[in-house]
Amino acid sequence: MKKINRITGFLVVFTMIFGLCACGSKDAAQISETETPVVTVEESVVQEETTEPSKVELEAPCEITVTDAVGREVTVTPGGYNRVVCIGAGALRIYSYIGDVALLCGIEDIDNTALEERPKMFDSVARPYLIANEEAFTALDSCGVGGPNAQAAEAEKILSCNPDIVISEYGDVEKADALQEQLGVPVITLSSGYNGVFDAAFHNSMLLLGTIFGKEERAQTIIDYIDEQVAEISARTADIAKEDKPGVYICGLGNWGTTNHLMTAQNYISFEIANIRNIVNDLDGKGISGGIQSIEEEKFVALGDEMDIIIMDAAAVKNIKPLYQEDNTMFDTCKAWNEGEIYLQMAYNAYYTNFEIALANTWYIAKVVYPQQFEDIDMTEKLNEITGVFLGKELADEIFSYNSCFGGYQKIDTDTFFN
After folding, report:
1. d(CA 388, CA 399)
2. How many Å apart are CA 268 and CA 230, to the nearest integer?
3. Could you give the percent of the chain with pLDDT greater than 90?
4. How many Å apart are CA 167 and CA 91, to the nearest integer?
5. Cβ atoms within 10 A of the Cβ of 83, count?
6. Using one digit for the tens of pLDDT, what is the confidence trace for 165-204?
7. How confident is residue 253, by pLDDT bands cut at 50, 70 and 90?
8. E strands present in 122-192
9. What distance in Å separates the CA atoms of residue 209 and residue 150, rounded to the nearest whole number?
10. Could you report the per-residue pLDDT of 366-379, keeping only the tens digit for each?
11. 3-class SS at 265?
């Protein structure tokens, strides 16, 4: 090895290359690797028997244009953001799956449990992303109130956090454009689609965040895991004969508020994945998010004989219980009620969808309806596995401890549960 006698100085040469940086854009195929902009650093030293400078090539920041969930084209710099704000129902949750929570510089009040004055309508329901990151969230400044009553972003509050990018789930294109203009930083709108955790829109939102924050592998890992779970559930139930499928009724589903036994879904995606016979199949329209639809009481009564099993969402118990105490005959026509086949799934909508819980619910429903095919599945272990993939922590015990979770997945004792 030659000995370096002395360093005479450093010469930094910036090489400017004309053209667009194509990293991941639609023009990427038209630009070769050799055309990628670089910054060349030449270090001039005096060495024995050599006059050649050593060279180190560094990649320049790469701007690309992405299309967000509402069709807006936004220029971003992948991996180039250090101060992130998430606004609107579900934005922080999805970011928590993909991005680095340490980059957050502001948070909506609804997700900061250290605040006394804040929206608290979801506090009785587990939100795994909040459980996993509560300590980090409480240390952040406010970027707005948040919650279902906040139908617009609070630009001044966001500006006070000095973000360099905003992740949003407010779906208005014009408002997103106006907010981006006012803030002077990219505003990226996400969506989770009609079928939530199983929807292509949700997967695309995670891939979009993966691209923006340099977490492509992380995003793909979660998507692959979801696909694997869906495939396994479907495979276990694919060969069950039609005549061996019990009739199942799902109730208590909600999105922008809790409901009761007369809110159901004829296109419930978890039933479709697990090949479950949904006894509700002739309602008008597709309903709201997730296919949620109301059913008339007369229809509910008429379907009673077909209800071999009732799956009840835990969030609706607080509404169903007082109704039952006023009229304890409301379930008398339901076969499932009379035979004690009432089961509790975890509440999965709280400031929009808890995607990991929605996935776990699908496993639970399949296990309830087809116990032989899923006798090896322990729901505490499965939920821990799912939250481990999504959030890096096993959270089942903490989730089950919330008031509106009633201790976890269970068969309901109809003689005591609602009394």
Report:
1. 13
2. 14
3. 74
4. 6
5. 15
6. 999 999 999 999 999 999 999 999 999 998 999 999 999 9
7. confident
8. 141-142, 165-168, 187-189
9. 24
10. 999 999 999 999 99
11. strand
Query: pLDDT-based confidence at 60, cuts 50/70/90?
Result: low
- Which residues does 172 contact at the CB level (< 8 Å), separation at least 6? 70
Residue 149 corresponds to which amino acid?
N
Pairing state of beta strands 11-13 and 38-43? antiparallel
Return the bridge partners of 40, or none: 13, 57
Specify the length of the chain in residues: 419
| DSSP H or E stretch at residue 227 | helix 216-237
Residue bearing tokens 């809110």: 263
**Structure confidence at residue 293 as a pLDDT band (50, 70, 90):** confident
**Residue 302 phi/psi, 5° resolution?**
-65, -30
What CA–CA distance (Å, rounded) separates 402 from 113?
14
Task: Enumerate the β-bridge partners of residue 13.
Answer: 40
Residue 320 has pLDDT above 90, yes or no: yes
Q: Are strands 54-59 and 38-43 parallel, antiparallel or unpaired?
A: antiparallel
End-to-end CA, the chain: 85
Beta-carbon contacts of residue 105 (< 8 Å; ≥ 6 apart): 83, 84, 85, 140, 141, 161, 162, 163
DSSP 8-state class, residue 86: E
Strands 106-107 and 141-142, bridge-based pairing: parallel
- Residue 103 carries which DSSP code? G
- Residue 289 DSSP code: G
Q: What is the mean pLDDT of the chain?
A: 85
Our CA angle for 213, 219, 224, nearest 5°, is 170
Q: Which amino acid is it at 199?
A: D
